[in-house]
Amino acid sequence: MSDTRCQFPAGQRRWCTGFAIVALLSAVTLGCKPQIKLVPAAGTFTIGGKPAGNITVQFMPDVSQKGNGPTSYATTDGEGRFTLRTYDNRAGAVPGPHVVTAVDLDEERPAQGQERTRPVRLDAKYSMAAQGIRVTVEEGKPLTIDVPPPGR
Q1: Cβ neighbour number for residue 149 with a 10 Å cutoff
Q2: Is the domain defined by 42-108+118-147 classed in CATH 3.40.50?
Q3: Using one digit for the tens of pLDDT, what is the confidence trace for 27-77?
Q4: Half-sphere exposure of 134 (CA within 13 A, CB side)
Q5: CA gap 60, 89 in Å, rounded
Q6: Taking the model in full, what pTM does it have?
């Protein structure tokens, strides 16, 4: 039968034990990231007052207003309704100010040199954070986003 006790001299044994404790505490600490509060967040997206389906919205906490937390996103249904989720699939969004970008998934993207066969519904400026829409997410308050049609 073999001896399973530590075979290191006493000084090395203390070092090994200390290292094992530090490694264990590090693993536990790194595995426990603080949970950022999310609130249920849903609403409607309209263009010129008309519901806009198949629009992807992305809500990014506005860092210029001390916003912090994960980005949330959704795609509108046929009635322009959306329900936000984070990219790690948690329901909701962090409360507070956000910059919102929007992209029309139905936008026609013809090949170079080809003409569009239908008008653009959503101005391209809304796809960039610098030109994004400013919205505040508050618990229990539905989100309403209405943008003007392109050219207005």
Answers
A1: 14
A2: no
A3: 544 455 567 899 999 999 999 999 999 999 999 999 988 888 999 999 999
A4: 7
A5: 15
A6: 0.74
